[in-house]
Amino acid sequence: MNNIIGTVFIIIGLVFDVIGCIGLIRFPDVYSRLQSSTKCAVLGTVSILLGTFIIRGVSPTGVKAFLTAVFLLLTAPVAAHALARGAYKSAARLWEKSVCDDYAENK
User: Fold this and answer.
1) Which residue ranges make up each domain of the chain?
2) How far apart are the first and last CA of the chain?
3) CA pair distance 70, 80, nearest whole angstrom
4) Contacts of 2 (CB under 8 A, 6+ apart)
5) Residue 101: CB partners within 8 Å, gap ≥ 6?
């Protein structure tokens, strides 16, 4: 039963990773691409790691997968925010059809 649940998590993670990679190619500006890559890393990779943990259980491989998933959950959103803020400060242009600019409202 654990193998089936773990495999389902791995398949879900692979689907999120593929969709995130397509988003990296298709989205128009750096901010949208950054959002796509962050979702890909968090949802896709963490799902794969949790699937590995479920399959392997409390073994050295499973514990490493679980700790890596926790590390990604804590660091990926913070890194994405820092990259987006750095891109904005270096004057990376928004897509011309963007609806709002939250950073400009805070100035």
Assistant:
1) 2-106
2) 54
3) 16
4) 54, 55, 57
5) 94
Residue with tokens 């400060």: 89
In contact, 34 and 87? CB cutoff 8 Å: yes
Measured CA to CA, the distance from residue 106 to residue 6 in angstroms comes to 44
- CA geometry: angle 11, 33, 12, nearest 5 deg: 10
C-alpha span between 88 and 82 (Å, rounded): 10
58 neighbors 73 (Cβ within 8 angstroms): no
Determine the distance from the C-alpha atom of residue 74 to the mean position of all C-alpha atoms in its chain, rounded to a whole number: 11
Whole-model pTM above 0.90? Answer: no
Taking the chain (107 residues) in consecutive chunks of 10 residues, what is each chunk's mean pLDDT? Answer: 93 92 85 84 92 93 94 91 84 70 66
CA distances from 100 to 29, 48, 71, 76, 97 (A): 14, 34, 31, 24, 9
